[in-house]
Design goal:
The chain is mostly helical. It is built from ten helices and two strands, in the order αααααααααββα.
């Protein structure tokens, strides 16, 4: 029975690795070619990257940095659209394993191997982490500030863009919050699916399903929610600000620092942080490709569309799911 239990746990883990790492798409297929405008040759700043990474034209003029047809319309005043986008994202993310291709092995196998290695050495690694109360407190505070500040900053960026009519800033804030929500739900589902003990609970060995399937909890250790949040935030902001390499380096450095702090605070094992970071990074890229005005909507059209349905006659609610077989067959989104 013991060997059967270990085998079952191993099977669950490989399935989780596949699900958590299968939302990446080919970056080449996601970017639309640059369009030349008649005034480009005579405009002094044509072709240059703005000093303000989130600067954009006043949206009241109808101008934007992307294609003329706006892809993302989620806004505080359009909550139904936000819900529709969120449901469509979830459908696309959870069905992404059906759209894997041979080239995905180039990133999927290394990620799976790194996760398996981290799982094997989780306990040994935690044994090397200091148990000093001061160091634990500092690490815990840093990770909390990093993750929660990311949410606050995303909301602030949206508010600034909305008030100043800067569409780029508004979109960045909306997509960042959307990516955090999407990645966060995936993380919570995986926490329920794995039910892993935290380093400071039970035997300290990070057992999966220590009480079999009698208890379901979203407070489990695998994967790390803080890592998910900070990497989703960093990915969207980086994708929305092309050309600002120092900003990107800073974002990912902070994300890495928050992730490491979750281990040094003894709140998570290394494998928890690795998978949580992957989920955040991949989900952030997925949301950007699906909804950013900078991406050609014809290229990233989703094979799955999920929308809320309301029947005024019966006062009932439901969910409608539309599947496009052609897009499903040709999609390069993973």
């Amino acid at each position: 029975m013991k060997s059967f239990s270990h085998s079952l746990c191993g099977s669950r883990m490989w399935l989780i690795v596949l699900l958590s790492s299968s939302v990446l798409s080919h970056p080449v297929a996601a970017q639309s070619p640059p369009q030349e405008t008649p005034n480009e040759a005579t405009t002094p700043n044509a072709g240059q990257v703005s000093d303000d990474p989130l600067n954009s034209n006043d949206d009241s003029t109808g101008a934007s940095n992307g294609p003329s047809n706006q892809v993302n319309r989620c806004d505080v005043s359009q909550l139904r659209t936000c819900l529709k986008d969120f449901l469509s994202d979830q459908a696309g993310i959870w069905t992404s394993p059906f759209r894997l291709h041979a080239l995905d092995a180039l990133w999927l196998l290394p990620l799976a191997g790194a996760t398996a290695t981290a799982l094997h050495y989780d306990v040994q690694t935690l044994q090397q982490v200091s148990t000093s109360p001061t160091r634990l407190r500092i690490s815990n505070d840093l990770s909390n500030v990093g993750a929660y500040a990311a949410i606050a900053i995303a909301g602030t960026i949206y508010a600034i863009g909305k008030v100043t009519h800067k569409e780029k800033a508004r979109e960045t804030g909306v997509l960042t919050l959307e990516a955090i929500a999407d990645a966060g739900l995936v993380t919570e589902v995986l926490k329920l699916a794995t039910n892993r003990e935290r380093p400071y609970t039970g035997t300290g060995r990070g057992r999966f399903w220590p009480d079999d399937s009698d208890i379901y909890t979203t407070a489990g250790s695998f994967p790390s929610g803080h890592a998910t949040i900070i990497w989703a935030f960093s990915r969207v902001v980086a994708d929305e600000t092309p050309g600002h390499r120092w900003l990107h380096a800073g974002l990912y450095a902070i994300a890495a620092g928050v992730s490491v702090a979750r281990v040094t605070s003894r709140n998570h094992f290394p494998s928890d942080v690795l998978v949580g970071s992957a989920i955040g990074y991949l989900a952030g890229g997925y949301v950007f490709r699906q909804h950013s005005e900078s991406v050609d909507s014809n290229i990233v059209a989703s094979a799955f569309t999920v929308s809320p349905v309301y029947d005024a006659r019966t006062h009932s609610y439901g969910i409608g799911i539309t599947i496009d077989p052609k897009a499903l067959h040709s999609s390069r989104l993973k």
